[in-house]
Amino acid sequence: MSEIASAARPAEPDWSTVTAEELVAYRDAENRFRASEAARALTGEPDPGATIEWHEVTLPGRDLPVRVYRPVGADRGGLPLVLHVHGGGFVGTAVQCDWVNSHLAARLPAVVVSVEHRLLSPDTPLAAAADDGWDVLRHVLGRAGQWGVTPARVALVGESCGALISALSAVRARDAGLELRAQVLVNPAVDVTETMFDYASISRYADTPTLGVPVLRLFHRYAVPPGADARALSPLYAGDLSGLAPALVVLPTDDPLADHGRRYAERLRAAGTPVRLTEYPDTGHAFLSLPGLLPQARTAGAEIREFLREALAP
Q1: Which of 36, 42, 214, 234 has its CB surrounded by the most CB atoms within 10 Å?
Q2: How far apart are CA 206 and CA 188, in angstroms?
Q3: Contact 182, 248 (CB under 8 A)
Q4: Domain-by-domain residue ranges, the chain?
Q5: SS3 per-residue string spanning the chain
Q6: Looking at the whole model, is its pTM more than 0.90?
Q7: Regarding the domain with residue range 3-311, which homologous superfamily does it belong to in the CATH classification?
Q8: Is the Cα dihedral 86, 89, 95, 97 positive or negative?
Q9: Burial class (CB in 10 A: 0-12, 13-18, 19+), 73
Q10: Catalytic amino acids?
Q11: Whole-angstrom Cα distance, residue 163 to residue 189?
Q12: What are the b/e assignments for 27-48, b being 16+ CB within 10 Å?
């Protein structure tokens, strides 16, 4: 980490005792850092072959920002759509994924729409963020001509909590008769039930620099309030995983959630859904969004682009 980036970044709170007010203050400061030029030393420079703009979409009961990436010079119609959902349950912004998404837009080429989903808080459970991902997908496809995309060539990409949202959206798409070409799930969290912590990787990597168990426990507490159906928000426990879009599951090995991804890949495969599982040794959670720090991010980015290029071909 560069000295500039380190100096600009806020200190993490004590996750075991943080109050809602302290969390909001930290989240706002951390997201300002992730959207800053200083953070580019970690998160990478965007591909100059893509434009990046914020848009606002009107959804039932709310307006939601989305970050849109388009290939420079491409026609305004008929491009594939990649719906992306950033990681971070209660901290995170689409801007932290500019490197990932601009390269997807420029090199596929495609229109990439990254959902600035509602972040978890005592008043905003995971169900709200899951609805944001699904509702943005339906909104864009319902106005495909305005967005310059073709509904026949659509893929989902998600990271961490965003991968959970993407996996849930893939199931909802199948149930709604919406045919997706692909789903890419990077270091996915797929179990928010009480068994969330019952995996060997959780114990083995309980305290890593990019994700630790105290953060996961806070995530779990906010994600599923008392009385909510945790299984309905856990792709791992979906009753039927057949007929879903072909999946690429990308796992950093040194990640508390690695076994979540492995188990989900097993379930997809058992259900007959095509799945490719790729593990990147000696990498931690959120590695894909840290190309300035981890060279494996560039290898994984290239793999994801090739997977999507084949899946989204005319």
Answers
A1: 234
A2: 16
A3: yes
A4: 3-311
A5: CCHHHHHHCCCCCCCCCCCHHHHHHHHHHHHHHHCCCCCHHHHCCCCCCEEEEEEEEEECCEEEEEEEEEECCCCCCCEEEEEEECCCCCCCCHHHHHHHHHHHHHHCCCEEEEECCCCCECCECHHHHHHHHHHHHHHHHHCHHHHCEEEEEEEEEEECHHHHHHHHHHHHHHHCCCCCCEEEEECCCCCCCHHHHCCHHHHHCCECCCCEHHHHHHHHHHHCCCCCCCHHHCHHHCCCCCCCCCEEEEEECCCCCHHHHHHHHHHHHHCCCCEEEEEECCCCCCHHHCCCCCCHHHHHHHHHHHHHHHHCCC
A6: yes
A7: Alpha/Beta hydrolase fold, catalytic domain (3.40.50.1820)
A8: negative
A9: exposed
A10: 160, 255, 285
A11: 7
A12: beebbebbeeebbbbbbbebbe
Condensed to tens digits (0 to 9), the pLDDT of residues 297-309 reads 999 999 999 999 9
* 101: amino acid identity, one letter: N
